[in-house]
Design goal:
Layout lengths: L8 H17 L3 E6 L3 E7 L5 E8 L3 E3 L2 E3 L2 H23 L8 E6 L5 E3 L18 H11 L8 H10 L10 E3 L1 H10 L3 E3 H4 L5 E2 L4 E2 L1 H10 L9 H4 L2 E3 L10 H7 L15 E2 H8 L7 E6 L3 E6 L12 E4 L5 E7 L4 H16 L6 H12 L9 E4 L16 E4 L7 H25 L6 E5 L9 H9 L3 E4 L5 H12 L8 H9 L5 E4 L3 H16 L1 H10 L1
Parallel strand pairs: 1-6, 6-13, 9-12, 14-20
Antiparallel strand pairs: 1-2, 2-3, 4-5, 7-8, 10-11, 14-15, 15-17, 16-17, 18-19, 21-22
Helix pairs in contact: 3-4, 10-15, 11-12, 12-13, 13-14, 13-17, 14-17
């Protein structure tokens, strides 16, 4: 229960007064996460419970056949999300925050932001969604003996080298979106180890970039770019709880142009959305896992030991503390579901029954539970972009059915949810074949705000119990706020213990086990899904 959720009116007033005092005194932590479609801000109190939130909608652009966001949109979006949070604080508690106990920034992992010695951006931001790095990914994976996915920063950098892009000789610094924002706020070119592990492989012994692989890369590019030392181009690695700088006066003005926010707030290491997802679901210990569903969908499984071989379907990354994680990352998640929800919402408005997006989404998801276990013979692909796990360079969203299939709203919606989980299920099969065992799998993301639907169907897709906590809808913004608050306690407790005892000790967790009928139905659907990938490939070639 959060501090302002008490049943008695007098206690309610006292609780609100306590939160107000915490805000004024700076006993709070602010987390901001730049997701694919929404920038979220979450303010938490000393007990880690959310006390205010803000947000801003944004969207990537497809420019010159690359997915990108402009840096102008980054800052206008951050300012809008922060202003939204401040407005929420003012409305709830009647005060305007001027400082925080700690602050953290998180964002989409991977991608490519390259700057010159004058700190000028050399080429537009290339996001994780781009799949144009095939030759670099293949060559690096073979050279390093480590899977280097298409979206990793090092793949983007080496592809630029292979293509002799004019900007390469001018590169002075390469970072991720979270690293970039943190740098501008603090002046520090650092990165949390979890986010760094999506730039270049991490040695889990040193909990830093793998020194042997750095040397291999430098040797590889020596002929083309003599004198290149990759380690000089990458942000310095920091672990959860380590000092990562403080908010400068310039950084405060960037975040809050009104001038109300004071400089000096300590920041935790910037992290990727995978790391904040692990924190938000208490999944940083071995044999735990989490699944994050947003524009992309990915599973993070904390390993007890290294895998026996390299798998193209799996990334090896780390927790925010540097422990080894197998990541099943799918470029396409819930965006196509959201598009269909918009269509049905507009239809409701046309009938004279306008409804909020959450109400429309909830109604459609609940309808899915009435569908046939296998989706009634329908087939859906959510591929708005390419999907490396299934070998597709570009995506074409598709809905396909045979003449004898059962086209109902329930089957349609169940098929759309199954389609969001299809590629993930293919990747999870690889981990199962490696003998990886799990004690718990936690899910988070807005899709799980509708109780009992996506959670139940996801359990069928992964063949394991799926847990959802009360903060599932808060997601990574809450996770990075928790990491910011951890700064004060890192000297006393490791991150896993801190989460288990201080953050999740009294959390309410809802666990749904796989329904046998759903499991059989999803297996039938997945067989159809694999066979139908030829249709998806043909669509990408033809349209």
């Amino acid at each position: 229960m959060s501090q302002n959720e008490t049943p008695d009116g007098v206690d309610q007033q006292a609780a609100v007064a306590q939160v107000r005092d915490d805000i004024v005194a700076g006993r709070t932590a602010l987390g901001i996460e730049l997701g694919s479609t929404r920038i979220k801000a979450c303010l938490i109190g000393p007990d880690s419970a959310p006390i205010a939130a803000g947000g801003h909608e944004w969207e990537n652009q497809f420019v010159d056949r690359r997915w990108t966001y402009s840096l102008e949109d980054v800052w206008s979006g951050l300012q809008a999300a922060y202003a939204s949070l401040v407005a929420d604080v003012e409305e709830r508690y009647g005060v305007t925050p001027t400082t925080f106990g700690a602050l953290g920034v998180s964002a989409m992992m991977h991608g490519y932001l390259a700057f010159d010695a004058s700190d000028e951006l050399l080429v537009p931001f290339r996001t994780w969604r781009n799949t144009s790095t095939g030759p670099a990914s293949a060559e690096l994976s073979q050279l390093l003996g480590h899977n280097i996915p298409l979206r990793w920063s090092i793949a983007h950098l080496y592809q630029a080298v292979l293509d002799d892009e004019p900007h390469v000789p001018q590169i002075s610094f390469v970072t991720t979106l979270a690293g970039y924002v943190h740098w501008r706020l603090t002046g520090e070119k650092v990165l949390g180890v979890g986010d760094a592990s999506g730039m270049f492989p991490i040695d889990t012994g040193s909990r830093d970039y793998d020194a042997r692989m750095l040397d291999q890369f430098d040797t590889l590019v020596a002929d083309r770019r003599p004198g290149t030392r990759l380690v000089d181009l990458l942000p310095a690695v920091r672990l959860a709880g380590q000092d990562a700088g403080r908010l400068t006066a310039q950084g405060a003005a960037l975040l809050d142009p009104t001038g109300t926010l004071a400089a000096g707030v300590p920041l935790c290491p910037p992290e990727g959305d995978a790391g904040t997802g692990m924190v938000a679901t208490n999944s940083v210990a071995p044999r735990t896992a989490n699944i994050s569903v947003g524009t992309s969908i990915f599973a993070m499984v904390v390993l007890e030991k290294p895998l026996t071989q390299v798998h193209d379907e799996l990334d090896l990354v780390t927790t925010p503390s540097g422990d080894l994680v197998a990541m099943v990352h799918c470029n396409n998640g819930a965006s196509e579901l959201a598009e269909w929800a918009d269509v049905f919402g507009r239809f409701a408005t046309a009938l004279g029954h306008p409804s909020s997006p959450d109400d429309v989404f909830g109604a459609l998801l609940r309808e899915a539970l009435d569908g046939d276990a296998d989706g009634g013979g329908l087939l859906a692909y959510n591929y708005l972009s390419g999907e490396p796990i299934t070998g597709l360079a570009e995506g074409r969203p598709l809905f396909v059915r045979t003449p004898d299939s059962r086209l109902t709203l329930a089957n349609f919606m169940r098929t759309q949810v199954y389609g969001a989980f299809g590629t993930l299920s293919l990747g999870m099969r690889v981990l199962a074949a490696e003998g990886v065992e799990l004690d718990a799998m936690f899910a988070h993301g807005g899709l799980f705000r509708t109780a009992g639907v996506a959670q139940r169907l996801l359990a069928a897709a992964v063949g394991a119990p799926v847990a959802v906590g009360s903060a599932a809808g808060e997601g990574g913004a809450w996770g990075i706020a928790v990491l910011a608050a951890y700064l004060e306690h890192a000297a006393e407790q490791d991150l896993g213990t801190y989460l288990a005892e201080r953050v999740f000790g009294e959390a309410q967790i809802d666990v749904v086990a796989p329904d046998p009928q759903d499991v059989r139905g999803f297996a039938a659907y997945l067989d159809r899904y694999e066979a139908g990938l030829a249709i998806e490939r043909a669509a990408a070639d033809a349209i």
